[in-house]
User: Fold these one by one.
Assistant:
Number 1:
Amino acid sequence: MSQDNQKPVRVGLLGIGTVGGGTFTVLKRNQEEIRRRAGRGISIDMVADLNVARAKELVGDAVEVVSDARQVIANPNIDVVVELIGGYGIAKTLVLEAIAAGKHVVTANKALLAVHGTEIFAAAREKGVMVAFEAAVAGGIPIIKSLREGLTANQIQWVAGIINGTTNFILSEMRDKGLDFDVVLKEAQRLGYAEADPTFDIEGIDAAHKATLLSAIAYGIPVQFDKAYVEGITKLSAVDIKYAEQLGYRIKLLGIAKRQAAGIELRTHPTLVPQRRLIANVEGAMNAVMVQGDAVGTTMYYGKGAGSEPTASAVVADLVDIARLTDAPAASYVPPLAFQHDSMSTLPILPIEEVVTSFYVRLRVADQTGVLAKITGILAEQGISIDAVIQREADEVSGENGNQTDLILLTHDTKEGRMNKAIAAMQALPTVLAPIVRLRKEELA
Ligand code: NDP
Ligand code: HSE
């Protein structure tokens, strides 16, 4: 029997900025198609935003607009609260209050869930409501649903993704157009990709929030942002982007979650990726996530990871899921982190020293006999195997001073702790003339 005659799901929107505005527009434009899919209408009945005049201009007279988000939560006619304010402050309080009031919650707020997810998911379970967050990772790409439901048969071996559009946009524009970092960042902000605090983007924090959520869903572990290793793109230098290209690699900011026997690697950092991989060719603000499962092999998901309507696409998909399940018993809800709450894993997040990866290492050295032998000797002492060594011509490095050169080493897989020891020993050599640059490399084969 069709559920078409059922009353619509009534939604209250908290924050109608970039994503909230897109959500309102998409729901309005596609309401008929969405009703046919959901089996009932989805209606935004109330909006809270600090800027009431701007919100009224967008939504018109048919929707009640208030400045106090608590009025939305207190409205007994609202079934679902959509939190699109952002941050860990008032957003956390409002989400917990909405849950306590028995409302389902949809949010795009990865910062909130990566840090406070355990508390929020527990509160929702206790209250028998859903917390849906497809928009929180990779914007419009349905990666949460793919990982949680589509790949549910698999043991996930690793997940690696370009999950911050702002930094991918910056890296692409700097490489292709030779533009300065600051100019490209301003453009990303103008286009609505960047976070309210763009430090979250460029220092890797936003990508690490998303990687934290992916790790929890992939392995059934609690969200543990505090244990994630985070490194952004602000210290990346143009010369390393150039050398990487010459060696057949692109540098991408990757969020990585990988299973090892002893625990889970959870890390975000600039990464050399072979140019021939599809993911190395993901440009601009686009996102892509690769997932390797034992049964399915390698899969990849690509699309817009930010922006008004792409993100709204994911918010509305969550609303449809809730509309379909709203009359069902809570036991039939899909667990937010894919695994049943009483079957979560205790596998620890590994410290960065235990992470296994290969490396790109650049050393500015005196162009003298025996320098390379000392360096390879130090690596051998740490059991680190060298994949390739390249020495740039002296005049490429220092035209005015031909007695320096850049040595670039690519290593095979090793533990980061060993590499740290090797770098400390190499740095102490009098023939190593500048701070050593170390970047991680992933073959993603
Ligand atoms: P915006 O800053 O564009 O929108 C936030 C809105 O919330 C603003 O209109 C703001 O009003 C309003 N607001 C702030 N405080 C309150 C409050 N106490 N009560 C009611 N309204 C309030 O942010 P975005 O739309 O870009 O981001 C929203 C969320 O979505 C964030 O969690 C973000 O990380 C996430 N996200 C964003 C993406 C994007 O592409 N932008 C993509 C994926 C996720 P005012 O402007 O007056 O301060
Ligand atoms: N600031 C984020 C980005 C928005 O650039 O990807 C999407 O989460």
Note: The first strand starts at residue 9 and ends at 14.
Number 2:
Amino acid sequence: MLEQLKAYFGFDRFLPLQEEIIAKVLSKRDTLVLMPTGGGKSLCYQLPALRFKGLTLVVSPLIALMKDQVDGLRANGVPAGMLNSTLPAQEANQVMEQARQGKLKILYVAPERLALTGFQRFLQSLEVSLIAIDEAHCISEWGHDFRPDYRNLKALRQSFPGVPVIALTATATTQVREDIVTQLGLNKPEIFISSFNRPNLTYTVQPKTDPLGSLLHFLEKHPGESAIVYRFSRKATEETAAELSDRGYSALPYHAGLERDLRRETQEKFIRDQVQIVVATIAFGMGIDKPDVRLVVHYDLPKTVEGYYQETGRAGRDGQPSDCVLFYSYGDRSKQEYFISQIDDEEEQEKAHTKLDQILAFCDLQTCRRAYLMEYLGEPWPKTDCGGCDICLLPREEFDATEIAQKILSTAIRTGERFGVNYLVDVLRGAANKAVRTRGHDELPVFGIARDTDADELKEMVRSLVSHGLLAQQGSGYPTLAVSGPGRTFLKNRDRLTLTRPKHAVAERQARYSQDTNNRDVTGRELAYDTKLFDELAALRLQIATEREVPAYVIFGNKALQQMAFHAPRNEDEFSKISGVGDAKLREFSRPFLKVITEYLEANGQPVNVQRTPVTAPKKKARGISMSIRETKDLIGQGLSLAEAAEQRGISETTIRSHLERFVQEGGQIDLTHLMPSDDRRRNIEAAFREMGEARLTPVRDALGDDYTWEELAVVRMDLRQRQGQGVG
Ligand code: ADP
Ligand code: ZN
């Protein structure tokens, strides 16, 4: 099995549970696999498919992804095909013919096909040896993503008695799990549940004081890398996408109100790295199987912890370190409370309240966020520093909170214990607003007694007092705060109280924190690869992917390129050791990639980082790439042409161009005058961009003809982008 794992998929070992699952499937038992996103579920049916004699049928609702899955398999030398509504009839017939002739090992089908009697007959004509049901939770009405078509699967099961079924999902709740087993009619299934911890994700919650600023800060941490920003409303997605575009980022909105074709196009662009950021409502996600999303931001408060876990789960499927950030404000909380108050059904309303309370508790945590998530998912979690959430990464310090606690509790008592946190903080800070004045609370002796403490800090302390039981929250809609029995005792006895708070001032904190996460690697290992070589390899990857019209990761994942840029393999044998290089990819790609590596070594000597650098060295990928970009930018800024800059740096022109594009995309400004074509040519190119859109160069080049060079087009587009960025930001 290990041999096949390497030969077809290029991996050296199994991920947790994969081997056990595959063994069970091969023994023809029904199996149910519960694994988080990125856990490596696909391999659990793909490898058995290669070992079984006939065909493996894979049912998946994610039509948008099927093509990528099939492309990926084919790139690995696995004969695979798909049948869904996006396929022209003629191609579909071809695929069916191939399947009938036993030429396919894996066939992906969309669930709606299964209801058609003609299709049933077609299936019966095949030698099916395994049925895989992907996203199996779609069969359950309890799940978050019920698909009526999935009810046809029971019939499928019945028409292939004796053929083992493997059902896979990333949804873990017991109810859904039981539903899958009954609805699919699984026969004494072996159930595999892997840990739902996502060790490569770092969870952060920030007060929503300057959300756009914070968002930009996190985007800077991930230059040019894919990001999803979730927003509460359709309108908000468009606003944020526009704000990001104004600052030179490539960002598009996505929500259910957009035309279907446009949505598909956006999704497609995201998967193919033609747009960096998608700002979306939660309608975006199903169908996004991009492995290298490095940042997921919840710009507004999510509705439930489940939803939050699912959405953040879209980050870092490839196992590489990724960030999940949530901006939290009391305003968002009130907004959701308002929506909940509009729910008619009382039971539903109660449920929604409970869910809201749970996500609020998550935001308010002063203890490890991962521990909370794991507990929520019903998984035991040792109470240790997870090293991957803002709480664990930020050491807290104890401080004497006696006086501030007395002030807060007294203010609650003086104002009649009828108000919520915002009002208390207003009185404490001496905000003489209308609400406070009409009640005469500006006359109280407690008015303004905590004037010198920051409002957010005060709010956090109020929350601490609640969690320490000195204040009691009452009511769930707009909870009011009353002093509890222990709170009264505390005041009466003049007890002392110690609380904790973050150790550093905010700015210093963020600097430290981003450094910490940049330095970390999931495996604890650090590949100090040559970033310049990585860029070259990435440019080649992009070129091949574009020629074949597949996403870049179908060719090689970032991890594979990093390994190449670290080990700098010189021959096929060394190349074959890279993770992700199986037989097919070795055959097809070793030559062009080895060529780039060899040429690079000739021009530059050994890779600059052949030995591992100590963890403290500021030699980070993100940083490294942007250093390299900066170098390119400086040369162009000195008036060099692309060819001259390429020569000077010993890298290709394509790479030089992609550096400049990245630099401009990230909002940088550079003088391109000496690269610009003549005015009339420029005008023609600009007109073509206006008509065809800026996302891709090919349509523009097709429209203008060979007389125009790629370089000209790219330069004019950069110039356009720079001017757009300047106009607003
Ligand atoms: P899931 O469907 O569970 O979200 P995937 O099947 O898409 O996960 O796998 C996630 C990532 O892990 C993919 O990039 C895949 O290539 C990679 N992967 C799967 N199995 C292995 C393995 N044994 N070794 C290394 N990487 C693996
Ligand atoms: Zn933690």
Note: Residues 11, 14-15, 18, 35, 37-43, 291, 317-318, 557 surround adenosine-5'-diphosphate (ligand 1) (CB under 6 Å).
